[in-house]
TrEMBL record:
PANTHER family: METAL-SULFUR CLUSTER BIOSYNTHESIS PROTEINS YUAD-RELATED (PTHR36930), MOSC DOMAIN-CONTAINING PROTEIN (PTHR36930:SF1). This is Molybdenum cofactor sulfurase. One of its GO terms (molecular function) is pyridoxal phosphate binding. It holds the Pfam family MOSC. Residues 1-22 are annotated as: Disordered. Residues 20-144 form the MOSC domain. InterPro entries: MoCF_Sase_C, MOSC_domain, Pyrv_Knase-like_insert_dom_sf.
Length: 144
């Protein structure tokens, strides 16, 4: 069983902007993170990005951190991009199912202009919430 870690949890009130790190987030089944702009009845309820991807951008000289690429969950220790659609991840009682790897960015959003580039289109992962609960930084992320 492969294990990783939740490094940060972040939300934003509007789409296409950096998310603000929080002490905890509450995920609701078939909805997403309560209080986040991306929550709702669709397949991209929660976005995940590996700390390793953020580190790549730092090595290019960008001053970026958790939430800067509009990801809800910043993770470490699991190669998210290598996971096939349908893979399930658990954090405590929370269970999520990967629904999409990467995304097409039709326009350059605020994140692109603030960071100079964006790793979400290539390395971001999206999931729907199968069972809800609370997620905090430091929680164990388990590949089911």
């Amino acid at each position: 069983m492969q294990k990783g870690r939740i490094e940060a949890v972040s939300v934003s009130e509007s789409k296409g902007e950096k998310k603000t790190p929080k002490d905890a987030v509450h995920l609701r089944e078939n909805y997403g993170i309560i209080g986040d702009a991306h929550a709702g009845d669709w397949h991209r309820q929660v976005s995940l990005l590996a700390q390793e991807s953020i580190q790549k951008m730092r090595q290019l000289g960008l001053s970026v951190g958790p939430g800067d690429f509009a990801e809800n969950l910043t993770t470490s220790g699991i190669d998210l991009v290598a996971l096939p659609v349908g893979t399930r991840l658990a954090v405590g009682l929370v269970e999520m199912e990967i629904t999409q790897i990467g995304k097409v960015c039709h326009t350059r959003c605020a994140i692109y202009y603030q960071a100079g580039d964006c790793v979400m289109p290539k390395e971001g992962v999206f999931a729907k919430v199968v069972s809800g609960g609370i997620i905090r930084p430091g929680d164990e992320l388990i590949l089911l």
